Amino acid sequence: MRLQTQVAPEIQKRLLLSRVEAESLKERDILCPT
Predict the structure, then answer these.
(1) What does residue 4 show for φ and ψ, rounded to 5 degrees?
(2) Which of 9-21 are b and which e, b meaning 16 or more Cβ less than 10 Å from the residue's Cβ?
(3) What stretches of the chain show up as alpha helix (H) in DSSP?
(4) Calpha distance 19→3 (Å, rounded)
(5) d(CA 29, CA 31)
(6) Tens digits of per-residue pLDDT, 1-34?
């Protein structure tokens, strides 16, 4: 559990990044559908 709390910030950062990427991809698809 201690390990988890140390790793958590990095995981949260990655999750946030991937979420932002997914959102921007969605917007791009809506703006320019292929």
Answers:
(1) -60, -45
(2) eeeeeeeeeeeee
(3) 2-31
(4) 24
(5) 6
(6) 566 666 788 889 999 999 999 999 888 887 766 6
Tokens for 23?
Answer: 């959102």
The H or E element that residue 33 is part of is none
What is the rounded distance in angstroms from the CA atom of residue 16 to the CA atom of residue 23?
A: 10
Residue for token pair 């390990």: 3
The model's pTM is: 0.54
Diameter over CA atoms, the chain: 46
Owner of token pair 């932002």: 20
